[in-house]
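Budget justification note: compute hours in this period were largely spent on complex prediction jobs such as the one shown. Inputs:
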Amino acid sequence: MTTETRITVRYAETDQMGITHHSVYPIWFEAARTDWIKQLGLTYSQLEKMGVMTPLSQLECRYTGVSRYEDELTVCCFVTELSAARIRFGYEVLRQGEEKPICTGSTLHGWVDSQTFRPVNMKKRFPDLYAQIETQLEPGQKA
Amino acid sequence: MTTETRITVRYAETDQMGITHHSVYPIWFEAARTDWIKQLGLTYSQLEKMGVMTPLSQLECRYTGVSRYEDELTVCCFVTELSAARIRFGYEVLRQGEEKPICTGSTLHGWVDSQTFRPVNMKKRFPDLYAQIETQLEPGQKA
Amino acid sequence: MTTETRITVRYAETDQMGITHHSVYPIWFEAARTDWIKQLGLTYSQLEKMGVMTPLSQLECRYTGVSRYEDELTVCCFVTELSAARIRFGYEVLRQGEEKPICTGSTLHGWVDSQTFRPVNMKKRFPDLYAQIETQLEPGQKA
Amino acid sequence: MTTETRITVRYAETDQMGITHHSVYPIWFEAARTDWIKQLGLTYSQLEKMGVMTPLSQLECRYTGVSRYEDELTVCCFVTELSAARIRFGYEVLRQGEEKPICTGSTLHGWVDSQTFRPVNMKKRFPDLYAQIETQLEPGQKA
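Corresponding output:
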């Protein structure tokens, strides 16, 4: 499952180089991740209420192009790795109508208890949800 | 009591006009407010732990100049209004060595219970802290 | 003319109070302003290329409610004041399906030359565009 | 040469998890990079005026801890890689008084002409500056 999130670059997101500041892409990744989870049939807010948070442990971005104010972009989001302890999402940011992404990236998240901030074994705690995410893994990816 | 907070403009805070984006000044106001409260001898974090939050009900900014990447600024912060229900802070942002501010502003905050988000009578709940803030009001301001 | 811009609150836009940080609303106002100008039939990017910028001289926000992560909001934008030297926009932020705004605000902008940053007499420099904006003023507002 | 930049976590930088949002660390990296360049005896603003920009091509962060509102942090910055075409900076974010970083990262930048956005051969165009940076490389790193 790959979701597509539409983004229009905001003025505040540009910097004095006249392009989107690089720190904005991780925020778009997060908006895309929100949509990915919503596609599963629950919201990330519900997940937090269920007692699970997914703080980042790694972030990677490759910037291969630029975007500018008012550009209309699509952020593709998919899951590339899943285990009882962690989940990794991948991202591609494309200018609409183009095939070559202007930015690609990934984020690695731990499954964490929202009260204690301690690791949660997601496979045991929420086996159904875990199984559902597993079916959405990109082909060829490791569960 | 007026506090002075030093700010160096970050690259990410600029926009494609080549100046600091206007939405950044309220964030600097907040950093200045943090320092003002710290001058009282407690931290805002402690205040939140005491059960009090101060969400904004009003924000006003007047932009009379611009700032740019790497500019070194001073944000002056003072209290202009105090009641059992609310507190208003005033701000002036100056480029170092200049007398005319590039931005002035104010924020109005309700005293709110951090669990219920309901109004707190600050004068009754924390009379000593309230009295202490009262002595720090700018001369000629209303308590 | 009033435009309506859809916003979904991003995780990064929340703060430790669990609500959208107040400095984010001016950024949404700007996204709404972008849409308002687009409704005129040109983009703000084109306006900048025509040699005109509209830096803020004033910002006002009244926060009458809160918004939270994943909330779906509508930002209404309209022009409340227009002169050869300045333009003022008004805003209302509503949670979808509600009538009472959670935030209202206004921004005042000077018409400025994008090279020199000096005031531009908009009525003389772009009479057609000025007349077009004039027809979009809210009834009862001053031109 | 390793520079140390002092950061106090701003309220606006926290999210509803109660910790600093992960997208803020790259902004602190940038503030640290600004200080690193300043230590060379020029400012990044001067570098841009000399006709050189350094847009990011890669960003990597490892989050090994968390920071919270009002935490006082140190961001260490150093150069780990240098060539005529690119420069890589490394970062460590530490809570003051602690030895184990809460975040480490790196950014890779191209040397780019500020007018054309095309690659610049830094070794040829500014041989003295290039040589000066070369002497500041961390021991054991590749030039």
